[in-house]
Amino acid sequence: MADIKAIQAELKANKLDGWLFYDHHRRDPIAAHVLGLNGDLMMTRRWFYLIPAKGEPRKLIHRVESKNLESLPGKTLLYSGWEELHRMLPKLLAGTRTIAMQYSPDNNIPYIGLVDAGTIELLRKLKKKIVSSADLVQKFEATWTDAQLEMHLEAGRRIDRIRQEAFARAANFVRDGTPLKENELQAWICGEFRDARLVTAEPPIVAVQPNNGNPHYEPQAAAALPIRAGDLLLLDMWAKLDAPDSVYYDITWVGYLGERVPDSYANIFKIVRQARDKAVEFVKDAVAHGREIHGWEVDRVARESIRKAGYAKTFVHRTGHSIGREVHGNGANMDGLETRDDRKIIPGTCFSVEPGIYLPEFGIRSEVNVFVGKREARVTGAVQTEILALLR
After folding, report:
1. pLDDT tens-digit map of 266-306
2. Is 247 helix (H, G, I), strand (E, B) or coil?
3. Integer Rg of the chain from CA
């Protein structure tokens, strides 16, 4: 259940009159997460839940589903028809002027922009100023508990082991001269996840050149390539413990099916590694010195490093994403390209740092996870320093 007092304290600190949650047919999973709503309930009608900066919360819900918010504190207002809904909204919002919602001006942070334009228009007709809840969401939905951090670290240990074994398996098949396709190695990894009591919403990326030049390549049985001697093999693996409230661990490593990594690959990896490390050090230094930084600034550090090396146009995605119960979480992303994420990086959050260079012939990405504590930031798992020569 939501910590009402903590939310109200944050509302007061930010001079907001309330945080208004609204949903219809579960379009806003953030609302369910923050409020701790039962995922099994039938929710087919519009509902509102207001947490004011002071005073008791209030609910506005359809009579057909009048019990759906009974787990939450506060006074309940009921409606049946749309006209009654419109009449009840002013009562729900009495005493408020500036209200936070899952809304993003100009859709700058689309992960937060979940309230439809019509609902925003309706509330503005009631003379309400709607502002983004992005910072509130990060604080109350994207920060981890100590237990979640420990689950992340344990997931990391299991995934790092499976990653090592996956590279070894590919090498053994090449040595034996037995065909092994990308999708077959992917299926083997998924089986190892299950055996290790790990779960994931999507399977890992297993890609040899030129497929690893596609950041979101998905090996399909009909078109998957065999893994052969001389191939550059990219593994992007993400999963979490099969346990309540667990959070993801997400990494990308590259290996070469040979005894010596060609300079053409090693040189590109060096550029990617330097961009990764500069971004991580930027975060570490800021946290250690108590300096406020934002997601877009971290992206700028990595992107500028790759630009100076002459590969700006080949780095086609953000530097990193928030990590939480979903692999793409609801905290600040390290993004100044796809969006301008101006959310502050705050303690208790975790995100990936994963720059990449994608050429027509091949692609290289290196990904680590960074957890931000109160006084320090740290990479939570093993860090790749060079392409692995898998047949050495």
Report:
1. 999 999 999 999 999 999 999 999 999 999 999 999 999 99
2. coil
3. 24
Q: What is the DSSP letter of 224?
A: P
Residues 220 and 209 in one domain: yes
- Residue in the structure block whose two tokens are 């593994």: 235
Residues near 278 by beta carbon (within 8 Å), at least 6 away in sequence? 301, 302, 305
Q: For residues 269 and 167, what is the distance between their CA atoms, to the nearest angstrom?
A: 17
Could you tell me if 115 and 166 lie in one domain?
no
Q: In this structure, what token pair is assigned to residue 278?
A: 């500069």
Residues 86 and 102 both lie in one domain? yes
Same domain, 108 and 196: no
SS (H, E, C) 90-107: HHHCCCCCEEEECCCHHH
Question: Are 306 and 275 spatial neighbours (Cβ–Cβ below 8 Å)?
Answer: yes
First to last CA, the chain: 53
Phi, psi angle pair for 283, to nearest 5°: -65, -45
* Domain coverage including residue 230: 143-389
Name the nearest CA neighbour of 62 among 41, 47, 42, 83. 47
> How many angstroms separate the CA atoms of 271 and 267, rounded?
7
Local structure of 125: helix, strand or coil: helix
Of 175, 173, 201, residue with least CA distance to 185:
173
> Same domain for 104 and 152?
no
On whether both 191 and 99 belong to a single domain, the answer is: no
Q: What percent of the chain has pLDDT over 90?
A: 97
Q: Give the pair of three-digit tokens for residue 290.
A: 């108590």
Regarding whether 121 and 75 lie in a shared domain, the answer is yes
How many Cβ atoms are within 10 Å of 104's Cβ, its own excluded? 18
- The answer to whether the pTM exceeds 0.85 is yes
Whether the predicted pLDDT of 1 surpasses 80: no
pLDDT per position as a tens digit, 223-267: 999 999 999 999 999 999 999 999 999 999 999 999 999 999 999
The CA distance from 169 to 176, in Å, is 11
Query: Looking at the structure, do residues 158 and 267 belong to the same domain, yes or no?
Result: yes
Domain count, the chain: 2
Percent of the chain with pLDDT over 70: 100
